[in-house]
Design goal:
alpha+beta, Glutaredoxin
Length: 133
């Protein structure tokens, strides 16, 4: 099962959790960072030597850096709707250090997140996918 480490209140974790929700993926969320700690443990640093969140573990594959995670999820689980990001089964995004992350707005636009979040806001009467209301 897909495992996601990070604080749900962290913006970069929210992007990853949003896409996991959109793709309807089974996952386990493991609180890490901030008051949860965990980021300075040897187990966490073995997954991400930078000690930053989010981190995703998918079987034997560990991916960190939110935009790299988004590209990985799109390539592996996205199907036809996300093939414009990477061809199916592309190995490019499986190597987190191979590609730098995009700026936040560029990634959001390339994934269609801006339009989708605006649509969800309207459907939910102004409540965004990350709000607690």
């Amino acid at each position: 099962m897909l495992q996601v480490w990070g604080r749900r209140s962290a913006f970069n974790v929210q992007k990853v959790m949003w896409l996991i929700g959109e793709l309807n993926l089974q996952h386990e969320h493991i609180p890490a960072g901030g008051s949860f700690g965990v980021r300075d443990t040897s187990e966490f640093l073995a997954m991400n030597p930078h000690g930053r969140i989010p981190v995703v573990k998918d079987g034997g594959t560990v991916v960190w850096e939110s935009h790299t995670i988004l590209r990985y999820l799109a390539a592996v689980y996205g199907g036809p709707a996300t093939t414009y990001l990477y061809p199916p089964n592309s190995n490019v995004c499986r190597q987190p250090r191979a590609r730098p992350g995009y700026s936040h707005i560029e990634a959001a636009r390339s994934l269609g997140l801006v339009d989708r979040v605006n649509q969800l806001q309207q459907e939910r009467g102004g409540v965004t996918p990350t709000s607690k209301a």
